[in-house]
Every structure is written in structure tokens, then in C-alpha cells.
Amino acid sequence: MAAVPLAEPLDVIRLSFASVDAARDRFPGYRLARLVAARLDLDEDDIERLSDMLGIDLLQSMAGVARPFDRHLRDVIALYALGALFRDDGHAPYHHAIRPTGYDYHRDDVDPSGMALWRADYRAMPEVRQMMAASIVWLYRAGKDNVWLRRVPCTWHAAEAIACLRGSGALRDWARLYALYPGW
Questions:
Q1: Phi/psi at 85 (nearest 5 deg)?
Q2: How far is the C-alpha of 107 from the C-alpha of 104, rounded, in Å?
Q3: What is the mean pLDDT of residues 6-30?
Q4: Under a CB-based contact definition with an 8 Å cutoff, are residues 154 and 36 in contact?
Q5: How far apart are alpha carbons 76 and 70 in whole angstroms?
Q6: If 179 and its partner were Cys, which of 53, 58, 91, 118 is the partner (CB 3.0–4.6 Å)?
């Protein structure tokens, strides 16, 4: 029986593990934003394949945790010190209450001073933390963003981002966030 071909985002990740240059050559212009947005197109079998690539069970349930994405999102925000960029405003249950700062949600408009602070805090972060923060924003927006991520570094090629996350020890946290994402 022939092997099932990998979905494109998984192929990008797989090839990135082998060679960033080969991944860039085969998938030119494939940005981390596109990889994150592609999560919506992946099914449980794809996530199982990603788990196999990483050698961990990304969907492993956490003992006593009813909402694993919510718990992991909050853990990632704490672990990577992203609290200045995201807050729990309590407007909804679970992860739906987590929102990026710098925006007036009651007026549905950017808070200019808050956004300037958001972008300054983001720019001051090491690249791996920027990648985690940008990934959370892309998950929150279910795709590209032109509110928070305007005029800040966020155009990493997916292969370079995977290599950076892997090299810094953050790939498992990023991949678990990616795998557990139920939609916002």
C-alpha cells in the first residue's frame, strides 16, 4: 500500500528538519504565517503525522485539564513572558477570553498608545518569543493579521522559523499550541 502524501504544511516542517535550504528551495515564499493559517486545513490524521515527526504525542491529554488548548495557551504566554502582549479580559470562557492588548474592543478600534506599547514590547523580544507571539495572533485571527503585526518583524520563512523554534527548544510548545488549536 502506498504511503499517504503529507499535507503541504507538514511537508514544509518535515523538509525543514532535514535542510532549511532544501525547504526554502522547494517552498519559496512559504512564510510562518501561512504555516500557522494552514492549521485550519489539517485533520486529526495530519496532527498524528506531526506528532510522529516530533516523536511526541501532541494531543496528549493533561491530567485533570478539560480544555487543553486553553491551559497550554496560558502556559505558553507565561513561559515565554508574553503577558504584555496578551491579557485575559474575562469577556468569554476559556481561551476565548485571551486577547491581544493594544486594542479597544468596546470601540472596535486600535488604541494608539496601547498599540505603540504592544509593538515596542514585541520588537524588544528575542526572535523566538516574537514567533510565539505572532503565532498566537495568527491563531487568534485565524489567518493573516494587519492590526498587531503591522510594522513589526514577522515575515520569517517557515523553514527558518521551524529551525529557530527547534534550536531554542520552543518547537514542542509551538507544535502543541498548533496541534491543540480548536479555533477561536
A1: -100, -20
A2: 6
A3: 97
A4: no
A5: 10
A6: 58
Q: Alpha carbon 97 to chain centroid distance?
A: 17
Tell me if residue 132 falls in helix, strand or coil: helix
CA–CA dist 156, 162 (Å, integer): 10
Assess if residue 81 is contained within a domain.
Answer: yes
> Within a domain: residue 1?
no
DSSP state of 153: S
In-domain check, residue 3: no
Tens digits of per-residue pLDDT, 37-78?
999 999 999 999 999 999 999 887 665 667 888 889 999 999
Digit-coded pLDDT (tens) for 106-164: 899 999 999 999 999 999 999 999 999 999 999 999 999 999 999 999 999 999 999 99
Rounded to whole angstroms, the Cα distance separating 153 from 131 reads 9
Query: What is the per-residue DSSP string for 79-100?
Result: HTT-TTTEEE--SSSGGGGEEE
CB atoms within 10 A of CB 82: 20
In a domain? residue 135: yes
Q: Which three cell numbers stand for residue 178?
A: 498548533
CA dist 20 and 28 (Å) reads 11
Task: Report the domain count for the chain.
Answer: 1
Query: With helix as H, strand as E and coil as C, how does 8-42 read?
Result: HHHHHHHHHHHCHHHHHHHCCCCEHHHHHHHHHHC
